[in-house]
Amino acid sequence: MYSTRCLFLRVPPRLSTRLFRRTRLLSTASSPDGPSKQLKPLSDEQRQFLSSALRVNQAGELAATLIYKAQTPPLVRRHPHLRPLMKHMYDQEAAHLITFNDLVHKHRVRPTALTPLWSVLATGLGWSTAVMGREAAMACTEAVETEIGDHYNGQIRTLLDIISQWEKDGYDAGSELSELVATMTRIRDEELEHLDHAVEHDAKKAEPYWLLTGVIRAGCRGAIWVSERV
Questions:
Q1: 147 assigned binding-site residue
Q2: Is 61 annotated as a binding residue?
Q3: 151 has binding-site annotation
Q4: Is the pLDDT of residue 1 over 80?
Q5: Does 190 count as an annotated binding residue?
Q6: Which pTM was predicted?
Q7: Phi and psi (nearest 5°) for 169?
Q8: Cβ neighbours, 10 Å, residue 80
């Protein structure tokens, strides 16, 4: 029913020095308030944060598409009324993955080396929770989206802090990071929408709820930590 074909792009393993390159030159154009402000070049730490963020987000969205792809057949066979919801959530995750594939390709960020492992684990998690039942599948979604929502919030805060500091120092923040914040905010909101759907469909009735969600959330945190670095 759903295909992830062509969603994951291979990009060169080398991180280009052009990643988020910003000019140091003042624009010769003038505005009513005077000359245009200088663009602030990224520090090495900021460049590393951005490449890490794109890498882990791409990995996370790939895992999400595979979880939903694996959950859908066994879940829909027993609960046909869930087909539109599962397709809606899958389609959104697939769009998120395409977005981060494009960003990773554009900025020549190295994808995580553990993509094959995460793909197997995500597929297994999706299939096993669906086989356990509707409540377990929804508890899986609740657990994953809780961690992903927190993760995106942290990234958004860091980006806003960078932009705020640049503007405080009198630099032009430019449009690239602001657009990235807007993209991440939209995606975060859609992830939290999935969390709400899961709760509405009895995620908290899964047995054993606290053990199941606790293990999945811990696994997500571990995968995030590793994917940021490897």
A1: no
A2: yes
A3: no
A4: no
A5: no
A6: 0.82
A7: -85, 0
A8: 9
